[in-house]
Amino acid sequence: MRRARIRITGVVMAATLSGATLAACAPSSEDEGSEATGQTSAASPTVEIDQNFDLDELVEAAQAEGKKLTVYDSTGAVEDIAANFEKKYGIETEGIKSDAPDTVEKMIREAQADNVTVDVAVISDIASIVNELFPQEVATNWIPPDLADTIPQKNPLVAVVSPSVFVYNNETYPDECPISNIWELTEDEWQGNFAMGDPLNEPDLTDWFSELTIRGADDLEGAYASQYDETLETSEENAAWEWIKRLGENQPKIFADEETLVASVGVRGQDDPPIGLMSVAKFRDLEDKDYALEICEVSPWVGYAYPKSIVMATGTEAPNSAKLWIHYMMTAEGIEPQVSDGKISGNSDVPLAADDPSGVSEYLEDLLVFGTDTAQANGQIRPDMQDFWRLSYSG
Question: Got the DSSP string for 50-74?
């Protein structure tokens, strides 16, 4: 299949000797200067750089704190990473799964009450980090100095990039995905039969819509012309807004939890299962739950990939343990439980998993990849985007 490709500002696909790895371009020279001095403009997140860094000294200082470390992340893998970290360093650690909006709200409330219990957080909602947590000095951006050269996105620090992809039931459709272009999801044939999360509650979906309007409009316009052999006519600002409107009007199935969403697509024996949009991490259920799932090869993208940043609470009582956790997460050993689910380390030296069940590594060039450069814009446009979706979906 011939796919349209987007030129992504701030993000590139790079191949390393150890395998295909997703990397984003380093900050601009202005950002680099800010990081070197530890100072930022009002529009930039807080950056902290240790000038004299020694990993052994950090380990010793963290162990001497004698404090339990509490880490929040939106993936259940945080529990495994916490157990591995505790075993390696002897620091009591609890990993708690929490959705990004809940984590952001909790960190803000704790900072206001001067009662910090969330020491470190891995958050997919970059817009809230840049627009709320950093300006209010709720969270601090810390970069492991010895790994800085292989971490492309530092401002804020991206720990992992998480792909979400269009999927289909390959038992019902054994030859290929029943659609080849995402505009087909706006047609009558797929009315009410596209499964997705709730853009009003999941920031990565709302930001995906925003990224489409910022980065993807030209490709969506081209995909429309390719599919229908005519030029798109729209009263909206661009083709992305038009696609979002039509998708909402076509009444997709909205799921509050991804487990149910995945089951709606992948359960065997269905005559008319929906196309779905889900995290590649859910492919780990293929064997245990006997789902029939495969990535849908559609134009102009098979899905999107969004960054998750890792921050430490400014008021943590265990700052050295928090820094050590961040360092650990940026290594192949630390991030392994997430990389094995098809996610991509923010450290370009960490290879992709060789046995990822989703096979997303074959489609890296066919993902719409978010950069951190649009985080502020995504946050500013979010209320309008949610209103636009609400009106489209209810209309």
Answer: -SS--HHHHHHHHHHH---EEEEES
Q: Please name which of 322, 321, 304, 320 lies closest in space to residue 312, comparing C-alpha atoms.
A: 322
Going by C-beta distance under 8 Å and a sequence separation of 6 or more, which residues neighbour residue 290? 268
- The reported pLDDT for the residue numbered 338 is 92
- CATH architecture of the domain with range 163-304+385-394: 3-Layer(aba) Sandwich (3.40)
Q: What are the φ and ψ backbone dihedral angles of 297, each rounded to 5 degrees?
A: -85, 90
pLDDT in tens, 217-227: 999 999 999 99
Tokens of 14: 């790079």
Distance CA 296, CA 175 (A): 11
Q: Which residues pair with 311 in a beta bridge?
A: 121
The residues, ordered by sequence, that sit 6+ positions from 41 with a Cβ below 8 Å of its Cβ are: 34
pLDDT of 67 higher than 90: yes
Q: Is the pLDDT of residue 3 over 80?
A: no
Q: Which residues, 6+ apart, have CB-to-CB distance to 104 below 8 Å?
A: 123, 125, 128, 129, 132, 133
**Contacts with 60 (C-beta within 8 Å, 6 or more apart), sequence order:** none
Tens digits of residue pLDDT in 193-250: 999 999 999 999 999 999 999 999 999 999 999 999 999 999 999 999 999 999 999 9
**Would you state the structure tokens that stand for residue 139, as one six-digit string?**
């969270």
Where residue 277 falls (left for φ over 0; alpha for ψ -120 to 50; beta otherwise) is beta
CATH number, domain 11-161+305-372, options 3.40.190.10, 1.10.287.3510, 3.90.25.10, 3.30.1310.20: 3.40.190.10
Count CB neighbours of 269 within 10 A. 9
Which is nearest to 386 in space by CA: 255, 244, 252, 246?
244
The predicted model scores a pTM of 0.85
> For residue range 273-296, what is the model confidence (pLDDT) as tens digits?
999 999 999 998 888 899 999 999
